[in-house]
Amino acid sequence: MYPIGRRLKRGKLICIVATILTMTSCSPVSQPDAKLSDAQLRDDLAQKIMIDLRYYCEQAPEKGFCRTPMTELPEDLASLIRDTGVGGVILFAENLTDVPQMVRLNRAMQDAALQSKSQQPLFISLDQEGGRVARVPRHLGTAFAGNMAIGATYEQQGLKYAEATGTVLGKELKSLGFNVNHAPTVDVNVNPNNPVINVRSFGEDAELVAKLGIAQMQAMQAEGVIGTLKHFPGHGDTAVDSHTGLPRVEHDRATIDKVDLLPFRRAIEQGLVETIMTAHIQFPALDDSKLVSKSGELIQRPATLSRAILTDLLRGELGFKGLIVTDAMDMAGISHFFEPTQAVIETFKAGTDMVLMPVRLHSKDELNNLPALIDALMAAVKSGELSAEEVHASAERIRASKARYVKLDTSSEAEAIAQAEAVVGAKEHKALEQALSDDALTLIRGEQTLLADNVRTLHMVMPDRSKCLAMQQALSRNTASLTVSCASLQGFDAELNQTQMNAADMLLIASITPAQSAVERGGMEDMSLVKADALDHQAQQALIPALIKQAKSQSKAVAFVSLRTPYETARLAKDADMVLATYAYNSHVIPGTEEEPQIYAPAFESLARFLTGKISANGHLPVSVDAD
Length: 628
Description:
The chain is built from 22 helices and 18 strands. It is α/β, with parallel strands linked by helices. The chain has three domains: about 1-35, no CATH class; about 55-425, TIM Barrel; about 440-610, Rossmann fold, CATH 3.40.50. Helix 3 (about 75-85) packs across helix 4 (about 100-115). Its EC number is 3.2.1.52.
């Protein structure tokens, strides 16, 4: 798998045997300290960099940052890819508009890469986890309900949905020209207050997470798309989002082995893992060493910058032979404490193969940031701060992985587009998406009964107007005998809600906890939106218990629905008669219905089917929740 390292060992062995037998001297096939040319080193370093091209402006705005999505490769960026021979690119939702555009953009980037001196193809990547983190437009691709929903189906369905979703994700991404997916998340979510992982995890049982994560990754890779297990050594017991701060996990080594590391260890033991992503998290039980931050403060090394964690533990103890890629280096867990060049040097010293989003390249004025970074890394090699041998071995791992997975499309552009349009969002993929949502629906408290015979009028309280519309339409498709009203918690009208509730026989109230994180919005450039979401979410949460008590005081039946993490049910739904969990609330307007919007929303369709007796709620909680 890794030609250089193996050649060295084999060469040394041959040399020893030959010397014993013939008493003559010989040299290994490849000398570990053989001097590499500057051109080779520069190419090696470029291969170790994965850039983001989310936005691009010909000229930087006078104030703020560029926010113009890059949907067509400009010549400036094509030249940058050609001239540097950079190893990879990550794209975001803003880069992706429709199937022909996605195919053309990815082909254009590959064409530019193949014209570089190295002629190495690009890793073209994205975060298409499913559920709350999906970059391909939801009205085109198949986003699914996400990992915790898959975890909820395991008791009844085993590996069915992990394998099936991995296959669909792989097929759709491959057809569009992607070859790396930064998924699945195999963090074991043992912290109910985790602001960033929560439903992105398969659950709290490490063995279950391992089984489902491995199955999904293996199915994806069988379709020709590299899966990425993340976030090593584990992001499941954090109360801080590494997009906004530097989390610290205080587990002892025994707990780390039993919980955090177990999914990674199981996958490595099976020899299936191509790529693992690091976490910007401090683990004092694994590495308590410190380094100087850009402010001059001594801080404990996060895993991304720790040789003890990435080389000694991941490579040495666990025996990982694949690629180590960092999480985005513009996240606060790194960028608030280290200058970009310092952070890249430290993570390469730690043992990382590829660094993700190390510099900003969003305008013509910023394009020199990439060659300048490569120059700085060259200087670090020359000074001995970085090992030329390790850099070269790392680049060879990258090239070997590309040789296995990056199969260049020889079809015409028209043929590639036609193939992608036949695959992306195919009818059978959407049917699987709905089936997963149906089978994941979990009844936490209450009886498997339909709407009571005496319920003729249902009042709903939803997080926003789009959820109201989604649920109203889902109910209208499943029953004609129910009058439905709905109030939105955004811009909540207390007087109107009271009038509607007075006229209803039953209240259905839904909640989303926690608020959206930066990774769901896209990245660090969306932090202002994330903060606004959090403020609005706090106001909504304060209303829910009071609304439930108000309905109960009027002797009305109450159903509470958790649309995200089910932990909130213990706090918000103590007085509800029925408590349900969907783990997802994905929805979008069906194309062509914009004037009279028709909403596609699998989770709400499942709820409506359950409430009208079409299906049972057969999911099982994959995390512990106080149901009393």
